[in-house]
Each structure stands twice: as structure tokens, then as C-alpha cells.
Amino acid sequence: MRRQDAAWTRQVVEVLKQPCGSMQLQSLARWLQCLSVVDHFVLFVYDGDQKPLLLFHTLSENLKRIFIDWYKDGPYLQSPFYLACRKSQTNGLCCLREMASDEFHDSEYFRSYYSYLGLNDELGFFVNLQPKCTAVFSLMKRLGRGSFRSDEIALLNNALPVVDAVVQAAWHEHRRIGGVSASENDKKVTETFECFGRGLITQREREVAKLLLRGHSSLAISQLLNISNGTVKVHRRNLYEKLGVRSQSDLLGLFIRCLESI
User: Fold this and answer.
1) How many angstroms separate the CA atoms of 208 and 76, rounded?
2) pLDDT-based confidence at residue 179 (cuts at 50, 70, 90)
3) Nearest partner of 212 among 242, 180, 236, judged by Cα
4) For residue 100, what is the DSSP state?
């Protein structure tokens, strides 16, 4: 066995022998930092339509307010990682910017949230926990750190089985000690989607609003609903007028206020 292979094995054993949960995740984060420069780690579980469930992070309290508290208040609905989970993204390591649409930098998600994070690059390990329930272990680089290099990504790809095992163990430990899944604990998002604009907008306009809140463009909505792009724009204009908003960002703000009122 080569010396570097032996060192790799010892490091993996050191991670796996830690108690499941936060201690093992912290050990995993330290090991991954030996493979690549990483500034922040965040582990979210996305369970259906529900709010993200935070299992682990390495952020300061000030950064947590932006990266996590603000994110959970509504911007996550337009996150490429969340949208990928909604589409049943398979296990693997993915780059956020590659998963995002070509209009990522012009999107409301980028302008109203992501641009404030001060990040240069972000990778996510996707770990499927159960049907419609996926964990994303995010690795982030600050501005000035450059992007993840191809050799770093190759090493991180090799680490996938270890990340999968640790994240699965953290999820089972969370459930064992009395934690419940987001679908059992928080029905507010689904309820808000169902009643959003009730009495003001039509059912079709609500469908368009729901897709807009998830970050879809008018063209994407026309394809999803099998209607013309022009018809989507009419529905969009009408629902904006009825709800008293002027933009997709205003629509998201209104949705968040409705979410908080339930």
C-alpha cells in the first residue's frame, strides 16, 4: 500500500470512529479541508415541500443569520440545490453554478440573496435519505479564494462514500434522539402554497405563482404547464396586479409574510 493510501485510510477511520451526529460531521469537515480549501460547511435536509432542516454548520453567529436564518425564511425556494432535490437529484457531488440556469446571475435568488453571501464557489454532496427527502452537504469558498480546482473536485468525488455514510448516520441519529422529519414537523410551506392568494387569484394564476416562487422563468413555466409563453406572461401580469406586487422579488416577500402569519 502506498504511503498516501495508508494516510487516507487512517483519516477515514478517524472520521468514522467518532460518535454519529455533530462530532462526526465536524471530523468529516476537518478531513475534507485536507482535500480542498473550504471556508464554510452547511448540511441541510430537504423533505418535500417543507422548510429546510439544518443538521450542521460551521458558520459564525453573524454569518448564520444570512446563510441559514434568512435562507430558511424563503430564498431557499429558488435555490438550485433545493430545486434539484425537488427533481429527485441522485447521489453525487455537484457544483451549484453548473446546476443553475444560464440566467443565474440575473435571477431574483442571486440579486436578493446569493450576492450577499460573498461566495466565489459552492459544491454540494447530495445524499438521498428516503423518498423525496435529500440531504445536501454544502462546501463553500469565499470571494478571493478562487473556484474549486479539478484536482480538488476529483479528491472530493472520491470522498463521496464517506460523506454518504456520515450524513446517513447523522440523519438516523437525529431521528433516534427524537428529531422528526421536516414533513412531520413543519407543514406551513405546503399550507401557504395552497392558500396563497385565495379569493384574489385563479387556480391557474396560483400555479404560475407557485412556479415563480420556485425560481422558474416564464419560458420554463410555459413548458411545465403546457401553455404558451404569452399566456404565462398574461397570468403573471394579472396575478401581480391582483396581489399588488411589481416583481418576482415582491412576490417572494409577500409569500414570506403569508408564511409567517400561519
Assistant:
1) 18
2) low
3) 236
4) S
